[in-house]
Amino acid sequence: MSATRICALSELEQDTALRVEVEGVPMAVVLDGNGEVHAIGDTCTHGEVSLAEGFVDGDTLECWAHGSAFSLTTGHPLNLPAYEPVPVYVVTIEGDDVLVDPAVTRPTN
Predict the structure, then answer these.
(1) 88-109: per-residue pLDDT in tens?
(2) Domains of the chain with bracketed CATH
(3) CA–CA distance, 108 with 53 (Å, rounded to integer)
(4) Phi/psi of residue 82, each to 5°?
(5) CA dist., res. 23 & res. 25, Å (int)
(6) What's the CA gap between 88 and 59, in Å, rounded?
(7) I need a labelling partner for 65 at 20 to 30 A (CA). Which of 13, 19, 49, 56 fits?
(8) What's the CA gap between 53 and 40, in Å, rounded?
(9) Is 41:72 a contact under the CB 8 Å cutoff?
(10) Distance between alpha carbon 106 and the CA centroid of its chain, in Å?
């Protein structure tokens, strides 16, 4: 597989998650307060709900349903009830295009 354009950088709102699906893989894409773009698995590992509907706080995305916050850089949950990480995808910026390859994840350790 190769990287797929998911949106324009200018379409992302700072500290807001955007739900996208790339080749059948749901992702939450976030432009954080430092201007970095992150893509993590969109499904909370505790409750099977969309993380993109949650709340961005710094470098975390909090599940709206049960309150587990996930690191945007590692995918690890930072509090219970979730205890399993979500995948973190490699994001590439080319001009104004945001690209993600759903087959390429960053290590979560």
Answers:
(1) 999 999 999 999 999 888 876 5
(2) 4-106 (2.102.10.10)
(3) 22
(4) -70, 145
(5) 6
(6) 13
(7) 13
(8) 13
(9) no
(10) 12
Strand partners, 39: 29, 89
Q: Where are the beta strands (DSSP E) in the chain?
A: 4-8, 17-22, 25-31, 37-41, 55-57, 60-62, 69-71, 88-94, 97-106
**DSSP notation for 16-30:** -EEEEEETTEEEEEE
Report in angstroms the alpha-carbon separations of 32 from 10, 48, 67, 97. 13, 24, 19, 16
Model pLDDT for residues 28-52, shown as the tens digit of each residue: 999 999 999 999 999 999 988 999 9
Q: Which residues of 25-48 are buried (b: 16+ CB within 10 A; e: fewer)?
A: bebbbbbbeeeebbbbbbbbbbbe
Neighbours of 10 (CB within 10 A): 8
Cα–Cα dist 99/6, whole Å: 6
pTM: 0.93
Residues 56 and 51: their CA atoms lie apart, in Å, by: 10
